[in-house]
């Protein structure tokens, strides 16, 4: 199979105080890499597999496809979980042609792997499965904007990426704003104004994503989204989610600031660009977009973080996803101490050290790209 390699390693994410952006996941194959610390995300793909296969067999209209079937994974990271998803999708499409008696018309498959320009595409392409159905190419750039030509995609996919904002809302870093998030690194536990800024930014980001994909997808194409979220009425007192875990992590920063490792102002100028919606909130955002119909939306029977068996695993999971932006803002010399403190705090709390207490959820969404005439009434 042909392969187009990308050589975008070694690009450092620039530090941005007023609108802090996330960096890519940790690259490589080392102990702190995303490749070695993403079993939770792999569990989500495994649970979604039969649903994706079922929906492709029922909803994919194969009568109007050309000789090439194009798939994109938006937020692919270093590929280990992406490869599994791309195998599920391409094999399900191939089976659909076989069942319809159209073996001679099975198309070539072309997969676009997308992530931030700082993503370790070298590791991704060096790890491509030798036995695969598709040709591969890398598409670096933010998925909140256009990345591909018009009507270039038949199937869009994204997993565990929608919770990352394009940037931290500017108001939460502005000490003249009512939403200034002083002393915190996240909206959880913050004032209502901070939460609203995060929620509004999330809605704008999802709209930008959907509008961009609407341009890139063929009419009738399908999109599968696996979206980290929280229950509609979760209570952070008897239970916890990723967001309250971030509150615990933020206390590590404040402890270090009080000990003089860096200033409290340094903490005030840093927030983590992560937002977890409730299902109704996500559904409302999607429904406001007139370019899609929601074919299926449900909470997955997910293993959650049961693959993370202890405090060290949980801290390593978070480090693999967030180390780049923290090192960029605070300096790489504090990272070991920071995550050592975090591991100890997790170990000291029976609540946080037990994966079964995690009440965060994963939402499966299947969208159908409406025909242009249906969207615009022409």
Automatic annotation (TrEMBL):
Record-linked Pfam families: Methyltransf_7 (PF03492)
Record-annotated membrane-spanning stretches: none
Any one GO biological process: methylation
GO molecular function, one term: methyltransferase activity
InterPro entries assigned to the protein according to its UniProt record, in alphabetical order: MeTrfase_7, MeTrfase_capping, SAM-dependent_MTases_sf
Keywords: Magnesium, Metal-binding, Methyltransferase, Transferase
Family that this chain belongs to: Belongs to the methyltransferase superfamily. Type-7 methyltransferase family.
Protein name from the UniProt record: Loganic acid O-methyltransferase
Species per Swiss-Prot/TrEMBL record: Sesamum alatum
